[in-house]
Write a structure and sequence with these properties.
By secondary structure, this protein is α/β, with parallel strands linked by helices. The protein is built from 8 helices and 14 strands. It has 2 domains: 155 residues, Periplasmic binding protein-like II (D-Maltodextrin-Binding Protein, domain 2); 103 residues, D-Maltodextrin-Binding Protein, domain 2, CATH 3.40.190. It is found in: Membrane.
């Protein structure tokens, strides 16, 4: 019942724009509260939680259904650490929200891709076709870079993931580029000609994340997920203990291998 209550609170917070409201059970000082995104990665984290228990560390996962509330919850002290964002997303969040956050550990890095239900190649996409990318600034820029690699658009040089649709200097097919919340991209595939996609959200939508027309790589570790805390908690030994358990657990790696295959890499290695 507690898990259901926390998850329902997360959905409510995302829907209303409110920060996470901590359930009374999370107030215990001996519990490490870890904020995570509700994706298939949770399975590997649950394994780490069980292993932590055997080492005397009590960990509670708090799942969120969006990418804004976990940082608000961390800032409010409702959780102790969150694990869902990469460095560019974190830096943008700190700038926009005024957060005093730091990364204290590195997690997995996921490939993203371009997917289509309608076409088997980029050449098949018709003039005026609709393309969906992530709506947040950083991941939207990452999607635009993939579109450029696919030969569908050309961007101003030197911007990298900071590019926006305003930086498109050539769009020969006159594609209509729409921005959607990242978690909704996989469910938009029937409505668009092409969409940026994430393995976790594709799994949740019942899609096969291996079927991308084009992948980016896992070489650029700037896009690896980070363990993020408030600056004053950077030396929290419970956080470091849990990160070590996650990074060194054979069962955690087996779970990630099973769910994501070659679509991820352990960026801490």
């Amino acid at each position: 019942m507690k898990q259901f209550t926390r998850r329902r609170f997360a959905v409510l917070a995302a829907a209303t724009g409110l920060a996470w409201l901590a359930a009374p059970a999370l107030a215990a000082s001996d519990v490490l509260r870890v904020g995570v995104s509700s994706t298939p990665q949770v399975e590997s984290l649950q394994i780490a939680v069980k292993e932590a228990k055997t080492q005397g560390l009590n960990v509670e996962l708090v799942e969120f259904s969006d990418w804004n509330t976990p940082n608000a919850a961390l800032a409010n002290g409702d959780i102790d650490v969150n694990y869902f964002q990469h460095i560019p997303f974190l830096e943008n969040a700190k700038k926009q929200g005024g957060y005093d956050f730091v990364s204290v550990g590195t997690g997995t890095i996921m490939k993203i891709g371009l997917y289509s239900h309608k076409w088997k190649s980029f050449a098949d996409i018709p003039a005026g076709g609709k393309v969906a990318i992530a709506s947040d600034p950083v991941n939207g820029g990452r999607g635009l870079l993939l579109l450029e690699r696919a030969g569908l658009i050309k961007l101003k040089s030197g911007l990298g993931y900071k590019a926006t649709t305003l930086d498109i200097v050539a769009n020969p097919k006159k594609l209509s580029i729409v921005a959607l919340e990242a978690s909704q991209l996989a469910r938009a595939l029937d409505d668009v000609d092409l969409a940026q996609g994430y393995p976790s959200f594709l799994r949740l939508a019942g899609e096969n994340p291996d079927n991308a027309l084009l992948f980016d790589g896992v070489e650029n570790k700037i896009f690896a997920l980070q363990w993020v805390v408030r600056k004053q908690d950077a030396a929290n030994p419970k956080v470091q203990q849990f990160i070590r358990i996650y990074q060194n657990s054979k069962q955690v790696r087996a779970s990630l291998d099973k769910v994501f295959g070659k679509l991820y890499a352990p960026a801490w290695l």
